[in-house]
Amino acid sequence: MLLVKAASLSPSESMQISLLTCSPGKVAYEKFGHTAIRIFDPAQVVDVVFNYGVFSFETNNFYYKFIKGETDYMLGAAQTADFLAAYALRNSSVTEQVLNLTQKEKEKLVEMLTVNYQPENRSYRYNFVYDNCSTRARDVIMNSIDGISVFSDKHVELKTYREYVEQYVGWNTWLMFGIDIVFGASSDVYATRMTSMFLPEILMKEFRNIEIVVPGHNKVRPIVSAEHNLVDRNGEEDDYLEGGFFYFLPTPLGVSFMLLLLGIFIIYFDLKRKHRNKLFNFVLLLLSGLAGLIVVYLSFFSLHPMVQKNYNLLWLNPLNLVAALCMWYRPAYRFLFFYFIGNSVLLLAALVLFALNLQSNNMAFIPLIVLLLIRSIHWIIGRKNASFKIILRDSKRIRNRKR
Prior knowledge:
Blueprint: H1 2-7, E1 16-22, E2 34-41, E3 46-54, H2 62-68, E4 72-79, H3 80-89, E5 94-99, H4 103-117, E6 123-125, H5 133-142, E7 148-150, H6 161-169, H7 174-182, H8 200-207, E8 211-213, E9 220-222, E10 224-231, H9 245-248, H10 252-273, H11 278-301, H12 320-326, H13 333-356, H14 365-402
Helix pairs in contact: 10-14, 11-12, 13-14
């Protein structure tokens, strides 16, 4: 009841409204930080935080909805002391930027939060880039201002959405490896200054330099009047597993190179024994085919904007699942011969696209693409004579029937 009462307050002269920015945590969904809005009114003994980032893992089919892009987030409210304690527990700093608002703007902002906090309005369809806790806080603040928000003319180095994500996740981590698999060419578009504020820390940095200009007036005021930390980190570093020889092996790039070397060694022993290792090919095709199915589903059915136009399908071919099963059915070898020829063309195309940077990809993909390519070529060379004999035999049968 206290939170509902706080949301429906009529701001007093002492009310202070702030933008809170929480630094990233170690869990996957904490990697990009968080944004919230604090309302502090000592005259009415109110100190609450409004937070557009509330969700529940217990929602029916949560993971399926998240993958498809149909996750609903909510606007929640909590006592500031509880909110800060939670971020102190996960060792995230919390920076407060006191907003330089007029009394009328405070009233408008509180009214919008009150309306958003109503049970019928709390939920919204979450979008990682275009509609999240950071963009919602930005929009509700900017829409409350009676004037024009002017960005600083200071040069800002903009990045692609993929580069922004990599900045927080680390370039050679398993999380980034998975993200790069499902992210398509759409994620390689450069963000604008407005769209880059989907990241809480970018929003905080931009707010440091935004000025409010009222048309017809000479007065210009900064959007932030003061900034300070409410919670400090204890100095621990994130364990991205970067740098050092011993850290190299467990990383995606290290593992992919090890798999490539293993594949080459298996080919070497196969040639010596005049034998073809079907199990290695089966596992390789099975895993790449399953990954391909996920990419196909996301590319064509997910609502996430960053997964569109995914050229990883050139090497993560879902039809590899069919090829994997055909490994154990000898009459299907003729099909596999032609399949691997076609697949080799696709794999070469993937390497060309990678070199041309038409879609930015993870460096760990290169050894895997090369591995798939040399295994395909090895199969083609090994079955060449047998396949050509079958083709000649079948063509003779057709000619004899015509006679």
